[in-house]
Amino acid sequence: MAFTLPDLSFDYNALEPHFDAKTMEIHHSKHHNGYTNKLNAAIEGTDLADQSIENVLVNGFSNTAVRNNGGGFYNHSLFWSILSPNAGGAPTGDLSAAINDNFGSFEAFKDEFSKAAATRFGSGWAWLCVHKSGKLEVCSTANQDNPLMPSIGCGGTPILCLDVWEHAYYLNYQNRRPDYIKAFWNIINWEKVSELFNAHK
Ligand code: MN
Question: Which of 54, 81, 108 is the last residue of a domain?
Fold first, then answer.
């Protein structure tokens, strides 16, 4: 079974002015689509072809094409799912309590996550992950790696991520990655992040 590029649950222009329509269109229909097609080509006819993406990331890790394109497929799929128009604000309920427990406050968490995104040199991602114990952790990874891969990042299960490749922001923000990171906080779908937190803690 080949992997399929997931549809977005909103229009390309729905996240404006934070993420612009042109960037969203190219990012989803070209970049994410490219990772999806190259992943499928890399696993076709192998043992990986019938595995879940989570298992492909672990079992195909030593194959560079699988690692890069499997990561690209998974990372962007998660990224779109935690974005939403008219979202932002702060998390509530158990996730809010866990963030306060682990980081001291929502503001302190925002600072740590933003710093991880801002200081990743070159291309990569920032992550919030939950461990089975309920512990939350922030990290960043290079290229299309992610914390589900063996010995990459903080481990645990990613529940929030931010793409800091230049293709994610350069059309609108040029070199101003910090402005892009600031904008991200206005379009986070905390309901979805909470759902992932509850499913994986
Ligand atoms: Mn990307």
Answer: 81
Distance 174 CA to ligand 1 centre (A): 15
Distance 166 CA to ligand 1 centre (A): 8
Same domain, 110 and 191: yes
State pLDDT tens for residues 9-31.
999 999 999 999 999 999 999 99
Helix (H) or strand (E) holding 41: helix 33-43
User: 159 C-alpha vs ligand 1 centroid, how far in Å?
Assistant: 17
- Give the pair of three-digit tokens for residue 79: 């990224």
If you measure from the C-alpha of residue 104 to the centroid of ligand 1, how many angstroms do you get, rounded to a whole number? Answer: 30
Ligand 1 centre distance from Cα of residue 85 (Å): 19
CATH number of the domain that 39 lies in? 1.10.287.990
Q: What is the pLDDT of residues 50-73, one digit of tens each?
A: 999 999 999 999 999 999 999 999
* Contact indicator for 120, 181 with CB cutoff of 8 Å: no
**C-alpha of 183 from chain center:** 15
What is the pTM for the complete model shown? Answer: 0.97
